[in-house]
Amino acid sequence: MAGDADGVMTGQTGRKFTNWAKTFSCEPELFFEPTTTEEIRQILDKARRDSKHVKVCGFGHSPSDIACTTDYMISLAKYRQVLEVDEENCVVTVQSGILLKELNEEVLPKYNMALSNQGAVSEISAAGVISTGTHGTGKTFGIFATHVLEMTMMTASGEVLRLSREENRDVFLTALVSLGSLGIILTVKIQCEPAFNLQSVQFSCPLDKMLSNLDKHLDENEHFKFMWYPYTNGVVAFLCNRTKKPVQTSTSWFWDYFVGYYILEFLLWLSTFCSSLLPYINKFYYSYIYAVPSERVDRSDKVFNFECLFKQHVTEWSFPRSETANVLLTLQEWVRSHPEHKVHFPVEVRFVQSDDIYLSPCYQQDNCYINIISYRPYGKDTPKDAWWDMYESVMLKVGGKPHWAKAHKVNPERFQKLYPMFSKFCATREKLDPQGMFLNPYLERHILGMTPQMQFDVVKSHL
In what order do the strands lie in the sheet with 160-164? Predict the structure, then answer.
């Protein structure tokens, strides 16, 4: 990255940011790729002088506009060093731009360590996975941010704060899931554990049987999730537990990739012209691909990760775990009673333990997460509004909260009711960033409740 005549960092023009699903994009005025903390400070100094907003982008896996801005964008892709490894206590300290994929494949194996839990995707930065409340599954496992012991964050003024449960506790609990609105996370200290393999047992059963045995599966397995396949009465469950067994896997290029990926995308594309095909597609793939019992043992991250297939729209909400059966049966009945609206598989169901992080969807509450998707075969959108709207209405009725990284319509008034610490979060954000440097349209809609005209007025006030 070049600098100006005074050695101050300058940004690139003409860069376009697009998220992985290609559902949101933006063209920032300047795009920066700093490699040092001092360069990040210089960018914020320039933003203050120029009255510009600043947003940090990661790998772009968030299926929303949470990272988008037309002012200054910072990529931390080159700010990714491993700073310290405490082998005795299984703790790693890293710069925030490092990808979980790098930790899983290059860093932690050297020290016989592993992340205790993670979501379906590893191509996501440490800062991103923390800031958006990303999660895996397991009755006794919280969101990824619960594994963070300490972090440092640069505020809009250029000050670097050290945050932990022992130091600046309130700011720490606010900043762990803060959507990039408080400052720029610089370093993260993550609690890991000794490296382990996971044994994954996959089986299918009717939805009602799964729901009647839900507590048993949650109690008996460390990491448990299942997928419901609309237009079938079936689910596919995954029971995952730590094991001393050696790696034992088997794959079939024909079934896993040719049929499971390429043919599926083609069939879904055909269904955009003839939607009546979708129930048959769902039934075929459930019966002949996914419902087949299987078992494998592999390195932990390879089991945690899940093939997301091709580009897609995604929405995911969490809600009290006790409402799991009620919600799924309501969704099933809607699909059955609305044959004019077709939906894609799978509906993913996961479980997460409560925590004390102020904007965590699991704040003081054990939750179930349900994720629904609408594929974009060859980049073509498919009708989803009726299914999406119904799902969101069900979530609102049971006190659900949307995943922060994913697109939703919830406003600050609703969040005020859903999050007991929402006002405290907003007060801390205002204190650390009084000029709104780290705001963008997503935050202005969902945190401040600003209309487009109000957003325009804020921009003018910075000029």
Answer: 82-86, 91-95, 184-191, 148-154, 160-164
Q: pLDDT tens for residues 26-51?
A: 999 999 999 999 999 999 999 999 99
Could you give the CA distance from residue 126 to residue 98 in angstroms, rounded to a whole number?
Answer: 6
Q: How far apart are CA 239 and CA 226, in angstroms?
A: 9
**How far is the CA of 341 from the CAs of 43, 268, 400, in angstroms?**
48, 15, 23
Lookup: tokens for 142: 């919280």
Q: How many CB atoms lie within 10 A of CB 106?
A: 12
Residues 384 and 150: beta-carbon distance below 8 Å: no
Can you tell me the distance from the alpha carbon of 185 to that of 206, in angstroms, rounded to the nearest whole number? 44
State pLDDT tens for residues 408-441.
899 999 999 999 999 999 999 999 999 999 999 9
Q: What is the pTM of this model?
A: 0.94
- DSSP H or E run through 154: strand 148-154
Helix or strand (DSSP H, E) at 368: strand 367-375
204, two tokens: 């299918």
With CA atoms as reference, report the closest residue to 433 among 175, 255, 205, 210: 175
